[in-house]
Write a structure and sequence with these properties.
The protein is an alpha/beta fold. Helices cover 34% and strands 22% of the residues. The longest helix has 27 residues. 49% of the residues are buried. The structure holds thymidine-5'-diphosphate.
């Protein structure tokens, strides 16, 4: 074990209070071969909260280079629903009042394979993608999307301003919550964004995670679980303002945040409304977070009892989709090959490998069609509609789904 180890809040510097300890966990995207089993990396995954910043965050996190590298296994463009979502995100930006410049320059932090930025590139809009995982950045470049393979930082922001000028729009999706040194990132954004420019980003939303006990959003890459309150606190430190919010259904419940330099845009009423709602459900204190921790423990017991019952009836179970989010559930609940015969997944880089920590074999989707189990544990529950639609023949043949959210159950 070799952890990146700040025990204090990454924003206020104050000590963190423990919400829950998940014990030793592998990398969420750490799909591996048999030869790598004995060197597998684990870290102690503990979730904490700090009253000053009101930010929910991991105590420890592996070094970024361990998670985002030459063989990063997550490609955004694997789901048709996500492609549609990012087309809508693109249309939202270009039709918004924040997008008014004649010759705009758009930057995306963590552009992955270009699922969002590609829409701007296709329209001939001046753009730049920043993607530290070189294999995914290569895919974006091959699609004609200008992408550099680096971690975003204040230093890189200065370099971009010198070379390309300041940005009208900086955007990111499912990336900001991955970045431990977020203070440096926000300082960089202060440099990079024009006076009238904005940052528009979205990430999984703490409100949904708590409401649905979807603790699978907690894994090594997600160092933060944002709320409107914590995001507002963070950006206010740099004379930015949270001016707009838009709840999203992606990743089982996300939030889109619009951030502008102070006094440049009117603050939309939804900002005050959502912050008030967050206070009323207690997203700003430890009482609700202790309750969340109890709900996670109950969810674990329920899942194990469902799986045990199915196995005691001599039935087979397979996992459906080798998502990074399932790593926490499988390892925390110790669900391995004693329950799941295999996990099927459409991503070629994951196929033929084993799941992080529990070492369940991962097969292509065709294996699921040829060897359907009695029960499929839906590990990509956020794509429920798309998958149920696609797997009508499994259901027609008597196949059943196991779901873990909002509580473990058979569908
Ligand atoms: P996603 O929810 O984006 O995963 P993560 O938790 O890693 O963020 O789901 C993407 C994964 O799910 C990817 O490995 C592909 C797989 N998948 C399938 O195998 N079949 C499907 O029909 C869908 C929608 C996803």
């Amino acid at each position: 074990m070799n952890n990146h180890n700040p025990i204090n809040c990454r924003i206020s510097g104050d000590p963190l209070e423990e919400i829950i300890d998940f014990g030793l966990q592998p990398l969420g995207n750490g799909f591996l071969t048999k030869e790598d089993f004995q060197d597998e990396y684990f870290f102690n995954m503990k979730l904490g909260f700090n009253q000053n910043s009101q930010m929910v965050q991991l105590f420890e996190q592996p070094e970024p280079e361990k998670m985002f590298h030459r063989e990063y296994a997550f490609f955004s463009s694997t789901s048709t629903a996500m492609k549609k979502h990012f087309q809508e995100f693109y249309r939202y930006i270009i039709n918004s009042s924040y997008y008014s410049s004649d010759n705009p320059f758009v930057v995306e932090i963590g552009c992955n394979d270009g699922i969002l930025l590609g829409n701007f590139a296709a329209d001939g809009i001046s753009h730049l993608g920043i993607e530290p995982s070189t294999n995914v950045a290569d895919v974006a470049n091959k699609k004609g999307i200008n992408t550099i393979s680096e971690f975003f930082s204040e230093k890189l922001a200065m370099k971009i301003v010198q070379t390309n000028g300041k940005a009208d729009i900086v955007m990111s999706a499912n990336v900001m919550c991955h970045i431990p040194n977020i203070l440096n990132i926000v300082a960089g954004l202060k440099t990079l964004i024009k006076d009238q420019g904005v940052l528009i980003f979205e990430d999984p939303y703490l409100g949904d995670v708590i409401k649905k006990t979807s603790y699978d959003q907690i894994y090594d890459e997600h160092v933060y679980l944002f709320s409107a309150i914590s995001v507002q606190n963070l950006f206010n430190r740099f004379d930015f303002e949270l001016v707009d919010l838009q709840p999203q259904s992606t990743h089982g419940g996300s939030m889109r945040y619009v951030i502008a330099h102070k006094d440049q845009y009117e603050i939309q009423p939804i900002v005050g409304n959502i912050i008030e709602e967050e206070r009323s459900i207690g997203l700003d204190n430890m009482i609700s977070l202790h309750e969340f921790s109890e709900n996670i423990k109950q969810s674990k017991e329920k899942l194990i009892s469902i799986l045990k019952e199915i196995k005691s009836n001599g039935k087979t179970i397979a996992g459906y989709a080798a998502t990074s989010k399932s790593t926490t559930i499988l390892n925390y609940c110790k669900v391995g090959s004693q329950y799941l015969d295999y996990i099927c997944d459409t991503t070629p880089i994951k196929q033929g490998k084993y799941s992080p920590g529990m070492h369940i074999p991962i097969y292509p989707h065709s294996h699921f069609l040829e060897n359907p189990p009695d029960y499929a544990f839906l590990l990509a529950w956020n794509h429920l509609d798309e998958i149920l639609n696609k797997e009508k023949s499994f259901i027609d043949a008597g196949g059943k789904w196991i779901l873990n959210v909002p509580q473990p159950r058979i569908l």
